[in-house]
Amino acid sequence: MSLIQEMLSVEAFLKTKFPEAATLLYEAPSTAPANSFSIVLLNDLRTSETHLHIRTEREYQLRYTGASAEEALETMDKLSSCMYQTPFIPVQGLPRFIRIASYAFTAAALNESGQYTCTGSLRTEGRVARTQEAYEKMQHVHVQQVTV
Asked: CA-to-CA distance for 4 and 15, rounded, in angstroms?
């Protein structure tokens, strides 16, 4: 599963919960329109879990911009509840899921355009299988008895 595919899956998850909100991917502009989310990757950490799997831990910044501080806080609170009610985000186009490790957000702050922005941090976990060499299957097995 690629990083872009995972970010698009997070965007699709947000659109199912907040269909009227606009979404911006990969960058967080300082003057985002009201009623919009921006999704930005902050960290990507990969560790070798076993000789067959790699564990990926990613942290995304989710910013919501609203017309008032109440609207921004209320939307982020609803999103937080949705994150903990749904522990997995389905991956688009694959029969796989992204595990939600944690979600937290800050207080609303007034931005340059006179709107309020709340910033959230979404941590996700996933496992990716390592590519392995494929071997041809044995077609015929013969038993030979040796007597000594």
From this structure: 16
| Angstrom distance (rounded) from CA 88 to CA 95 | 12
Q: Which of 95-104, 108-117, 134-143 has the lowest mean pLDDT?
A: 134-143
Q: Does the structure show a pLDDT above 70 at 6?
A: yes
C-alpha count within 13 angstroms, C-beta hemisphere, residue 83: 21
Strand stretches in 31-142, DSSP E: 36-48, 53-66, 88-90, 97-105, 109-110, 116-129
Of 61, 83, 65, nearest to 73 by C-alpha is 65
Closest CA to 66 of 102, 107, 104, 16: 107
The region, left, alpha or beta by phi > 0 then psi within -120 to 50, assigned to residue 90 is beta
pTM (two decimals): 0.79
Tokens of 95: 């029969």
Would strands 53-66 and 36-48 be described as parallel, antiparallel, or unpaired? Answer: antiparallel
Give the pLDDT score at 34: 84
Rounded mean pLDDT, 91-110: 88
